[in-house]
Amino acid sequence: MDRKQFLSHSLKVSVGALVGAPVLASAAACNAAEETKAEEAATSPEPTTAPLVLAQIALPYDYAALEPSIDARTMEIHYTRHHAAYVKNVNEAIAAEGVVAKDEADLLSRIGSFSAKVRNNAGGTWNHNFFWQVMGPGGKGAPDGKVLDALNAGFGSFDKFKEAFTDAAMKRFGSGWAWLVERNGALAIGSTPNQDSPMMDMSELKGTPLLGLDVWEHAYYLKYQNKRNEYVANWWRVVNWDEVAKRMA
């Protein structure tokens, strides 16, 4: 190869190297980006579209813990049969209907969009989980601290609040619930039919539940038969006012 040919060949090689380097660098960068994306995909949670599954909380006390206000047999049947049935039925309905919700609160806030089976059993599930928590053994009978202050401010006195709440429980025709709720910074008392909750979009009473009383006959009939007034009067002895305080803003 003479000098002229050598210089020509060297120039071609140099140009080829200059052109090829960016291509190789670009390819390497693409490969690295793809690997990073793959790693992020492997570690990032998949967005869920699976149906929501509701759960029954563990009972916070023994079946006999609320005696004599609520007898052990009623508590056992109420928890293991009635409440458990609501949980089973709502999960079956959610799965069958393909209901998707972020959580239980989201489901209740849109409950009017779903079937009566979802509505009734979702309400029964949430209401009872709430009910078990706002009761407990060794109740103080009356609240103190911020709960008492709020009731005095909202209703004039604890006795007046108790009278209004009892009235709501007694006047709920048939099956349902009596509630103390907080809405727009104020307290309100009311009731709902069947298993409706104040958290439901179509409820006749709306607000954040602070206290609730189940007045379905299955909650008291074994001990009190048709004497709902005695059941309600004795229930005040097992209200867990500390739990109410936790739920109050």
Walk me through what this model shows.
The structure is a single chain. By secondary structure, the chain is mostly helical. The protein has one domain: minor pseudopilin epsh fold. 54% of the residues lie in helices and 9% in strands. It is built from nine helices and three strands, in the order ααααααβββααα. The chain has helices spanning 3-43, 72-97, 104-109, 116-133, 145-155, 158-171, 221-224, 228-235, 241-247; strands at 176-183, 186-193, 208-214. It starts with a helix and ends with a helix.
Strand content: 5-15%
Mean pLDDT: 87
For this structure, the CATH topology is: minor pseudopilin epsh fold
The portion of residues assigned to helices is 40-55%
Across the major sheet, the strand order is 2-1-3
Q: What labels describe this entry?
A:
mainly alpha, 3-stranded antiparallel sheet, disordered N terminus, minor pseudopilin epsh fold, 249 residues
Task: Give me the secondary-structure topology.
Layout lengths: L2 H41 L28 H26 L6 H6 L6 H18 L11 H11 L2 H14 L4 E8 L2 E8 L14 E7 L6 H4 L3 H8 L5 H7 L2
Helix pairs in contact: 2-4
